[in-house]
Amino acid sequence: MDLEIRGFVDDDPKKQLSVIHGVKVLGTTRDLPQLVRGLRIDHVVISIAQATRKDFRRILDICEEIPVKVRIIPALSEIVQGRLEVSRIRTSKSKILLGREPVHLDEENMNRFLAGKTVMVTGAGGSIGSELARQGARFQPSSLLLVERAEFALFNIERELNESWPELVGRAAGSRRR
C-alpha cells in the first residue's frame, strides 16, 4: 500500500513503549500533534477495533487541528466476514460519523443549481467542508471560493481540487479569521 509506518499511538497505558511487529507505540492520541510535526507525518491511519463515533470524532478533531490527512482502515469484522477487502483503506468518514449510509445527491438538480455560478464553501479544509468543495467542483461552477481559517487545511484542499479540476485554478481564495 506504499505506506511507511513511523509508529503507533494508543491511549491504553499498558501499550505505551511497546513494540508491535517491529513498530513502536510512540504515545497517545494527545501526542499526535507533536509526533506529526516531529516525524513529518503526512497521513494518520486510524485503525480501532471497537470504537464509538465519539472516539472517532475526538481523534478526527485532533487530526483536523494539526492539520493532517486521515485515512481509516475498515473494522476487522468487516474484513473477516468478507464484506470488505484489506486493501480498501478509506478516506470517507461519513458512515462512521453518521452511523448510517450517506445520502446520495440528486445530481441533475445539483447541476442546474451550481453549474456556471460562484460557489462559496466555508470551513473548506474540514472533513465536511472539503467534501462539499469536492462535490461542488464536479458541477462546474464558474468559480469556487474556499474559506478556511486553518491555512494548511486550505492549502491541502485547494491543491487537491486544482489537480482534479484545473479549470478552477486561480479562482479559489482563502480567508483567515482572528
What does this structure look like?
The chain is of the alpha/beta class and 178 residues long. It is 35% helix and 15% strand. It has 7 helices and 7 strands. The protein has helices spanning 32-38, 53-65, 76-80, 94-98, 107-114, 127-137, 151-164, and strands at residues 8-9, 19-20, 23-27, 43-46, 69-72, 118-122, 143-147. Strands 1-3-2 form a 3-stranded mixed sheet, with no helix packed on it. It has a two-stranded parallel sheet with strand order 4-5. It is elongated, with a radius of gyration of 18 Å.
Topology:
Blueprint: E1 8-9, E2 19-20, E3 23-27, H1 32-38, E4 43-46, H2 53-65, E5 69-72, H3 76-80, H4 94-98, H5 107-114, E6 118-122, H6 127-137, E7 143-147, H7 151-164
Parallel strand pairs: 1-3, 4-5, 6-7
Antiparallel strand pairs: 2-3
| Low-confidence residue ranges | 76-81, 83-90, 171-178
Cross-sheet strand order for the largest sheet: 1-3-2
Order of helices and strands: EEEHEHEHHHEHEH
Task: Find the structural class using helix and strand composition.
Answer: alpha/beta
In terms of DSSP E residues, the strand content is: 15-25%
In helices, the fraction of residues equals 25-40%
Write down the overall mean pLDDT.
Answer: 79
N-to-C terminal Cα separation, in Å?
Answer: 40 Å
Tell me about the largest β-sheet. 3 strands, mixed
- The helix tally amounts to 7
Q: Rg from C-alpha positions?
A: 18 Å
